[in-house]
Amino acid sequence: MRHEELFYVLALLKVEGVGDIVAKKLLSHCQEPSLVFKSKASQLNAIDGIGSVLLRKLKDKTIYQKAEAELQFMEKNQINVSYFQEENYPDRLKHCVDGPVLLFSSGNINLKNRKIISIVGTRQITSYGMDFCKKLIADLAPLDPIIVSGFAYGVDIVAHQSALEHKLQTIGVVAHGLNQIYPTAHKKYVHRIEENGGFITEFWSTSNPDKENFVRRNRIVAGISEATIVIESADKGGSLITANLANDYNRDVFAVPGRVGDKFSQGCNTLIKTQKANVLTGAADLIYGLNWDLETTSKPIQKKLFVSLDQEEQKVYDFLLIRGKELLDIIALECDFPIFRISGILLNMELKGVIRPLPGKLFEAI
Known about the structure:
This protein is of the alpha/beta class. The chain contains 17 helices and twelve strands. It has helices at 3-13, 20-30, 35-38, 41-45, 52-57, 62-76, 91-94, 127-140, 155-165, 190-195, 211-223, 238-248, 266-273, 283-290, 311-323, 328-335, 339-351, and strands at 80-83, 102-108, 116-120, 146-149, 170-173, 197-201, 227-230, 252-255, 278-279, 326-327, 355-358, 362-365. The protein has a nine-stranded mixed sheet with strand order 1-2-6-5-4-3-7-8-9, with helices on both faces. Helix 10 links the parallel strand 5 (170-173) and strand 6 (197-201).
């Protein structure tokens, strides 16, 4: 994006009463950002939602000073910018009507042709939630997904840490400008995350982590990903807002079920009960739910010379050796496993390279 174009887009976003939806209408209508300020009032007044009050506010000269100050901050701190009409803007977020006009980022982020999932949940994560989150990411690691979260306490930071442990790209979507890190206790993770991933925000360097910013931030978390996963949540909270936004954006939502009466499982159980989320009991549920193909992963899975199979896996393997190709449902029936259990067994066997999936939920032994 040219310096002049970015300057006028920044200026527009500082006009009182101009949000992302109105800004997109003006920018799409005028084509060039500078023309928003140079066009006649009669031309702009014809745009739906643009009235005389807003047109007067476009004449406010102080917005140029604010835009120039932000440009200087971006150049000094090597902040990257993504514009909603350009290729470097996240593809899925382009389809969200209220997606940010501009995204600021730091680090080494690459969102092209990748499996992207958001993991959210309570800040008061339990050992159950922590263990599940770590195992989920460990099991997904061979598929090399991007792990997105909000860099907050609890589920968020566990997801980021687990991604780092398995050398996966991870992205923190923050609710403030990139001149600071919140919470400050997480500063120690910044360098490692920016080496393979980074941070994204719509907020300027003048923005602090105010309460309302976290709600706005959640729509980026929901919109940028193929699916949103809720690990643990009370009956109210930001992770449920993110899940609802993901549903509004027609994204897949998965929730980890918990014990009845458990405070931090109420939100997840409600999402599942009201059919706003799919049940997530392990990586297999996500892989099959999103129709991810293990054979196209950038980290190819090869069959090992000496593979250790547990008793259940050996039973399935022996069955497939005799039957050849077989449907998932038939495998579950003939091997006497429930569907949710056979999914996990088959995933582990795929990761070990002893079976492979075929179109139509067929599997065969290698």
